[in-house]
Amino acid sequence: MKRLSSITGKLAPLLLAGVLTSTLGSREHTLAAASPQAKEHAAPRTDWPVYGGQSADDHYSALHQIDRTNVHKLKVAWTFDTREPGGLQTNPLIVGRILFGFTPMQKVIALDAATGKNLWTFSTGTPGLQPTRGLSYWTDGAQSILFAGLLTNLYAIDPATGKLIPSFGDGGKIDLRKDLNEKDVTQSFAALTTPGLIYKDMIIVGFRAPETEPALHGDIRAYDVHSGNLRWIFHTIPVPGEPGYETWPKDAWKVTGSANNWTGMALDETRGIVYVPTGSAVNDFYGFDRIGDDLYANTLLALDANTGQRLWHFQGVHHDIWDRDFPSPPSLVTVRSHGKQVDAVAQTTKQGYLFLFDRTNGKPLFPIEEKPFPASTTPGEKASPTQPIPSIPAPYARQLLTADMLTTRTPEAHAWATEQFKSFISNGIFVPFTVDKQTVVFPGFDGGAEWGGSAVDIKTGVIYINANDIPWTGGLTENKPGGSLGANVYQSQCSICHGGDRKGSPPAFPSLIDEQKRLSDAQVTEIIHNGKGRMPSFPNVEAARLTAVLEYLKTGDTGSPATSAPKSANRNEIAGAKIYDKNCAICHGDDLLGAPSNYPGLLGVRLRLTDQQILSNIHNGKGRMPSFHKLSDADTAHLLHFLGDSASPIIEAAVTSNNSSKKEVESALAPPGGFAKYRFTGYRKFLDPDGYPAVQPPWGTLNAIDLNTGRYLWKIPLGNYPELAANGLKDTGTENYGGPIVTANGIVFIAATNFDHTLRAFDSHTGALLWQGDLPYAGNATPATYMVDGRQYVVIATSNARNPKGPQGAAYVAFALP
């Protein structure tokens, strides 16, 4: 942690006019953490001014106009169509009568919360397709600031006008890639997927980073809300002299990255403590260069919100080699433990565990035992001998796949799944991956719990967790010498998601085979540089490397580029393959097939996108893809060459020109420093040939757990596949993204499901379905509830990015009583 001097700039008072004057300047939105009893007797808040409802991230609302007796009468009150394609995962803010949200192209919008009428729109002028799950709002009662993370920047916006506040940072924005000891930020990627938290006159932020090298250190930072000056920083990868440094190899902090907070935080405003869960260090699946526990990766941190000083921590996974990030923001709750009221913090996990701690000191409220797990058989790897396992509550997702659990949906699906299962290693959680064999990860890489977070009834101490319950598989393969430049770039950067065979794991990670038939080279370039959905941007994939990987996507290097170079192998293609392996294969797979709809296939990508678009994606990132602007021009050209023929070559000459240095080409050909001996073969969802999970239902669930006792109150399937339900296979549950909310009078609202386009209301006591409303698209977001003019609304952001076969679009839909 580094304490910096506080330099507070002056912000001219905002001129709030018309309807915005009365709604934004009406009161000070200071959300002090109060006891459940105090909150129960206080006048209920009518707005939703913080991501997750309030800084405690409990997703709780004291509004009670909508109750068990009338919820069935809910009707659509208004719909706002963004008229943009792409994903929309936003939990909007409602302050007074104004709703603040995003569009899929990363525009910020202000709507009249009673009618859905657009009041203003802010755009940076550069469209983005990265996930933007919420905004942050600061006010002192006289002034107000809206903070929005767009691409690699944090913007300060006047909420009354939608204009930038120029006194903040550099003309109204700060670059999130700075202040992280990075010499050339243009070659790095950082994006604010989940909004920062406001504390006093600071905004505390994490950021999203790539899953592959190069990746920034995932440091936690606090900025002055007025000036944009850095107030404090906490190093999640300790530097010499800091506690935790001893859990890494010497000087590992110089070469490794990430251990970032991408999923959000929770804040105890009364005590001034911010709770920050972090993800894994890179590379995710082969940790040969980070042997040790790797603090503070995969850690729940309790930091002094005033200074960034660490108060306590708990590491949920030691030396993570499974991508087991803490996936959700923690929830603050008061429970009864050993006869006393205890202010607690609850943290969910991808693997289906829930940890509960006294939030003042980190003491576990349910027993946690360090249990032994298998050693790694991969040369150079050293798995942790133990992992922390809570004894209570029981996991909310299945953790061991056995033959008797395989799908029986049809005889053909069962036979196929049985044959596939015979080739897998399936021994439960925390089994290290092996070389050239698939290991079952259950629940999968997307959980268990996910980024939507949980809801907590602050009156009862019951937590509501929606979970995915689908197995995936993963494995390692050797980075062998030879192969084309494009193949190597693909294997190192893309295969982690799209697979070594480019087949991906649709729809989560799209196939890249025949990608040129769907996208132009320009479109692929744009996605590489800007990211899209869950794919981060890859600004370091440019020039020769971009050319090579685009070519590889078209041809697939039928001469087995990943294992041996053809006798006539072009030096540029070989260099491109190396670059691809390092930067692209982690998501797009060994074979460029990706895993639709999460990681697109790259086969033939240069026939679908122009090289300019490909370069744009590589440099800027797109969706979940980070930027790869650290790649040199020569390397990018090699990568493009590797990706195959282009319909619009603009940098082909860079591959063979005199400006493409011999040293750069030779460094790409050499087995290096820069390439690990083994790489991940790609995220593979275990789906049957018809695209359904190859395991028996439930495939997604909603769970109610009493945190006072650790006992389950109820557990139900969440979601349907409409076509299966029409044929009698109902209540299977589905993958779900986005969380629930809970109201004071016992209603849990949740959408989240991928395929049935439904917002549901459940009885919080029994799990009984009370109502469901149709949505135009999937509600892959967390709802919000608020009251305007005496009328309570429930609003949800909808889109269909996770279901490419469904209708495409994005809209906000608000429901209310007639």
From TrEMBL:
Annotated SMART domains: PQQ (SM00564)
Gene Ontology molecular-function annotations: electron transfer activity; heme binding; metal ion binding; quinone binding; quinoprotein glucose dehydrogenase activity
Top-level taxon of the source organism: Bacteria
Keywords noted in UniProt: Heme, Iron, Metal-binding, Oxidoreductase, Signal
SUPFAM superfamilies: Cytochrome c, Quinoprotein alcohol dehydrogenase-like
Signal sequence segment: none
Gene3D superfamilies in the cross-refs: Cytochrome c-like domain (1.10.760.10), Quinoprotein alcohol dehydrogenase-like superfamily (2.140.10.10)
Cofactors, names only: pyrroloquinoline quinone
Annotated segments matching region Disordered: 369-391
Matches recorded under InterPro entries: Cyt_c-like_dom (IPR009056), Cyt_c-like_dom_sf (IPR036909), PQQ_b-propeller_rpt (IPR018391), PQQ_mDH (IPR017511), PQQ_rpt_dom (IPR002372), Quinoprotein_ADH-like_sf (IPR011047)
Domain Cytochrome c, first and last residues per copy: 481-557, 571-647
Keyword DNA-binding annotated: no
Assigned GO CC terms: membrane
CDD domains xref list: PQQ_mGDH (cd10280)
Protein family according to the UniProt entry: Belongs to the bacterial PQQ dehydrogenase family.
PANTHER family named among the record's database cross-references: QUINOPROTEIN ALCOHOL DEHYDROGENASE (CYTOCHROME C) (PTHR32303), QUINOPROTEIN GLUCOSE DEHYDROGENASE (PTHR32303:SF4)
Protein name: C-type cytochrome
Source organism: Tunturiibacter empetritectus
Top-level taxonomy: Bacteria, Pseudomonadati, Acidobacteriota, Terriglobia, Terriglobales
